[in-house]
Each structure stands twice: as C-alpha cells, then as structure tokens.
Q: What sequence folds into this?
C-alpha cells in the first residue's frame, strides 16, 4: 500500500485511535478498584476528622482506614429521613451528600447518613453537611453528642479563595472553634452561627456563635447557613436521641432519649427505655 496515499493515512489514523482507546479503557478498568479505595479512604478521613479532638490525634489519609476499623464504624452506620425515622436497606457509606440537598436545603425525601463513633464510652453522631460557598460547593461533617454539644467539625470546598475562604479547610483553628458549642437554645435548634465578632446568632436569639474568617465574610456566611440547613434536616433524629430528663423520685431513669416522665402511671415512672439508677444497683 502506498504510504503517501489518503487511504493509508485514514487507515493508520483509525488503527492508532482504536489502539489508544483500548489501552485507555484497559488502564481505566484496571485502576478503578484502587481509585475507589482511595475515594473511600478520603471519605473516612473527612468523617473521622470531625472527632479527631476526641480521638486525641490527627486523622490522616494514611491512618484513616485503621481508625475506622478500630472504631468498628461499618457496624455503626445508619440512614434517617427528615422525620427522624431510621431507614432500612440503605448502603449508608455510599450515600452522596450532594444528592440529599437542593438549593441549599435538605430534600424532603433525603436519605441522610449518620456515622456513630463510640470513643471512650461516649457516642458521637457524625452528620453530613452540604451547601453553596462563595464560588462553588462547600461540604463537611459535624459531630455532636446526645445533648447537642459539638465534638468537632471538618470542612472542605471546591473553589473558595486561597488564603481567605479556603481557610475553612486549611486553618484548623476555624473548625476547632466549634468544639464545645451547643446547637440548642432552650430546647430549640439554634445551630452555631459564624458571625462577625460581637454579632448575635441570626437563627435563634441567644444561640451560640463562632467568629468568621477575616476577609472571608461571604464564605463564612455560607458555612453558617450550610450548618443550620443541614442540622434542620437532622433535627427530628437529633431530638429522638437527646437524653430524656431523669425522674428525681424514681428508682428508674430514662435513657437513650426515649421518653420522659409519665403522668398518671405511678410516681416517677418513665416512658420508653429505662434503666436502674446506679445508686440503686
């Protein structure tokens, strides 16, 4: 065949294109398991970073899988809907936060993941967050105990300004400021607002706040709204786990957030799951 002919050029280009396509496909298929493993490990790192202070160590890409296994996280995953009802038959780890939100709010049919971390005898409920930043999407995880005390947060972004809005991820002090804050005010969900110093919580009067990032007020506002809207989606579930008050005159105390003191059923009796007070054991 004449190598200078148009037919030869077309055949050569076609064969070369097909060969390259086959090689790329083989490479993609071969690398897919490792890419999935890396993606899963990165997610584990982000989830566990929300409780790194309780763990007493930094969660890195290298140690995330080991910590995940030590805490038996795969056995302590669940999904809930906006009514707070636990959903069955859900692959919780594979739930994508972005798909549970629309226009900055939790969808009514959302399947919300909850990652329960049992550390030193305490349970921390890690929930996903997602929202719009100044330039692109922002997301993260927030961990609370049954009383609504924040154990930690982790944040990430797709395109916030380096050195300014990007500090939500890059500056550990920003996430650390949330630790110990409470998401309730007089029993009402108040979230924790990100505000200018001295400014009040805009969601509920008297609710807690943390200082915004200097020079990144807009991104800080976006983070504040993301936290509030995300917690709203979980609020019915959070109320279901909130520790019930104990009955002072009872030999039983309510636990597990299931019910409080009942009227007309005997002095100090409790509704729902109960356990003996330690002083009576």
A:
């Amino acid at each position: 065949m004449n190598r200078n002919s148009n037919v030869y050029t077309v055949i050569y280009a076609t064969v070369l294109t097909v060969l390259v396509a086959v090689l790329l496909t083989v490479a993609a298929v071969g690398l897919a398991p490792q890419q999935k493993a890396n993606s899963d490990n990165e997610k584990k790192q982000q989830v566990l970073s929300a409780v790194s202070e309780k763990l007493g160590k930094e969660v890195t890409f290298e140690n995330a899988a080991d910590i995940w296994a030590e805490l038996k996280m795969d056995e302590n995953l669940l999904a809930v809907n906006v009514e707070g009802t636990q959903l069955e038959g859900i692959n919780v780890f594979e739930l994508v936060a972005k798909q549970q939100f629309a226009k900055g709010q939790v969808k009514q049919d959302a399947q919300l993941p909850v990652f329960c971390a049992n550390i030193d005898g305490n349970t921390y409920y890690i929930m996903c967050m997602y929202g719009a930043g100044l330039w692109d999407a922002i997301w993260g995880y927030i961990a609370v105990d049954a009383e609504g005390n924040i154990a930690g947060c982790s944040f990430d972004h797709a395109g916030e300004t380096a050195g300014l809005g990007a500090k939500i991820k890059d500056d550990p002090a920003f996430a650390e400021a949330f630790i110990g804050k409470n998401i309730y005010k007089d029993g009402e969900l108040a979230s924790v607002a990100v505000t200018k110093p001295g400014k009040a919580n805009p969601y509920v009067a008297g609710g807690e706040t943390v200082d915004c990032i200097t020079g990144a007020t807009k991104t800080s506002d976006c983070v504040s709204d993301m936290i509030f809207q995300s917690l709203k989606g979980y609020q019915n579930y959070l109320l279901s786990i909130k520790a019930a008050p104990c009955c002072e005159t009872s030999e039983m105390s309510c636990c597990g957030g299931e019910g409080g003191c009942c009227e007309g059923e005997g002095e100090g009796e409790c509704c729902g799951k109960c356990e003996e007070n330690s002083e009576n054991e």
